[in-house]
Amino acid sequence: MPTQEIPRQDWNNFFDGFSRQHEGWLATLEIFAPDVGLPLEGISIASGGNGADAIAISLGKTPEDHVTHIITKPEHVWLEQTSGGANAALEIESENQNKALLRFRSSLPPEMVDG
Fold this sequence. Notes:
- By secondary structure, the chain is mainly beta.
- Helix content is 10%, strand content 50%.
- The chain has a single domain (3-106), classed as N-terminal domain of MutM-like DNA repair proteins.
């Protein structure tokens, strides 16, 4: 599967579009222990003016299953796509080289999936 790094200056626009395009998709977030099968709520950036200080990944539709994971001092963002061009995964690496991997249960082009 082809993977491309998203340049830091494009993160805001990329995460806004990615979140709108994939909102509600069932996803797995792997950090140390996976939060499996929750719908993606969105991805956002918190910045202090000099770039991204943190990236927040939110999963779950109800308060009972809501999970937010914050990646502090992100350094790299990679988008993994299928050979057909569908988004399959998003990998975010922090300054200390910790990684968060967001995977979708189904890797279909967005126009073929309804939430």
